Amino acid sequence: MTDYLILGAKVLGESTADLVLRDGKIASLGADTAAPREDVSLETIDATGLIALPGMVDMHTHLREPGREDAETVETGSRAAAKGGFTAVHAMANSTPVADTAGVVEQVQRLGADSGWTEVYPVGAVTKGLAGTVLAELGAMAESSAQVRMFSDDGHCVNNAQLMRRALEYATTIGGFIAQHAQDADLTSWDTEHPAQMNEGSVSAALGLPGWPAVAEEAIIARDVLLADYVGARLHVCHVSTAGSVEIIRWAKQRGIQVTAEVTPHHLMLTDELVRSYNPVYKVNPPLRTEADTHALRDALAEGIIDVVATDHAPHPDQAKECEWAQAAMGMTGLETALSAVQHAMVETGLIGWRRFAEITSVRPAEICGHTHQGRPLAAGEPANLILVDPSATTTITPENHATKGRNSPFRGLELPGQVRHAFLGGHATVLDGELAGSRTGRTA
To answer: Which tens digit of pLDDT belongs to each residue from 307-347?
Structure first.
């Protein structure tokens, strides 16, 4: 393994320091690095103007494998994650077959380990086949080599209240938690021939598209925080998208209920006004909401009511998006644009600084998921999972240049700030000078 001397980085955007990465750890930081400057065995990186941050941790990634390798593989998704500054991702269960058994989650774990670009943690399904009728093998997945602790039917809501209660109870006994896709199916799919297509509001009325009311999300969150309180369980709310949801989560936290929540970069930046173009790249679940919702989400993230940013990276093959709106798949890519989107929406607006950025993209998601070597302080003796970011760089988003197979980025053509210049996973450089360098297993871009 190559060891590195990083010169002049601004740690968390604050004080400037040199760092030595040796044997997979931060060997020294600050004044203690003066002597190693003369050590010719160290590869030197000039980090002047760059910000050192802990590697980002994504709680919500769709890697599609097994079964949908035409959309993404663990290999391509992991490369995208590394390029975007992530040193750990959590792979959602809606693969084919569904990750609802020990065998499937172990397969995803092995694929991630073989790839080596980022750590890959499988998320287990809550119900068999994501069908919402029978609990999946939560205990077997928790006891497997994948040691699953996060369970989600993401893409589907656990709509049955009794089943959700049992899932919360069961997950608690095995040290895990449920991540809920909050969507009342009765409010979004009341007409199977004309299911909801976008946010319900003035834009949906003008376009004549079936609307997706905010209350469909808010009603499930309200139910589930009460269930979590009743059984003493942990609940995580996926991709919060409405101002009303924020207020329910605020109330729950004030009551001491064990609830955490995430928001996506696209819900922080984009609104349902974009749907007027009928471009299916803007079709997503939950849908893009109003400008008022977007501002409420930003404020909640800055305040800590929403705990983390999670990408909900959802790549699709071209034919699934290059079609009429009603037939298009829901979802957007996000791994390689997340840092820039959050910098644009949160840092450059003055809502947060880089220390808070590290908390919502790394420290807090690692804490929620129980990872002891991710999201760690940048300090001597800590694992060398970190990134160096150029905050002054600007990039015109061109999906064809991305490492993911998906080209369905909602930010296409936008000029966004920030670039990951270097990334290290366990001290191994996965990104150097903005380009993929090589995985820990020896794979190259």
So the answer is: 999 999 999 999 999 999 999 999 999 999 999 999 999 99
User: Which of 369, 392, 412 is the last residue before a domain boundary?
Assistant: 369
> Is 312 an active-site residue?
yes
In a domain, 375, yes or no: no
**Coil, helix or strand for 264?**
coil
Distance CA 297, CA 219 (A): 18
Q: Residue 191 — pLDDT band, cuts 50, 70, 90? A: low
Please count the structural domains in the chain.
Answer: 2
Q: Catalytic pick from 229, 312, 318, 433?
A: 312
Bridge partners, residue 16, by sequence: 10
pLDDT tens figures, 125-139: 999 999 999 999 999
Domain residues for the domain of 384 are: 3-52+380-436
Average pLDDT, the chain: 96
Radius of gyration of the chain measured on its C-alpha atoms = 21
Instruction: Mark whether 430 and 336 lie in a shared domain.
Output: no
Token pair recorded at residue 111 = 């694929």
Q: What's 37's domain CATH number?
A: 2.30.40.10
Concatenated DSSP letters for 389-420? EEEEEEEE--GGGSSSS----TTTT-EEEEEE
Confidence of residue 41 (pLDDT cuts 50, 70, 90): confident
SS3 label, residue 386: strand
Query: Which string of DSSP letters, residue by residue, matches 143-195?
Result: HSTT---EE--TTS----HHHHHHHHHHHHHTT-EEEE----HHHH-SSTTS-
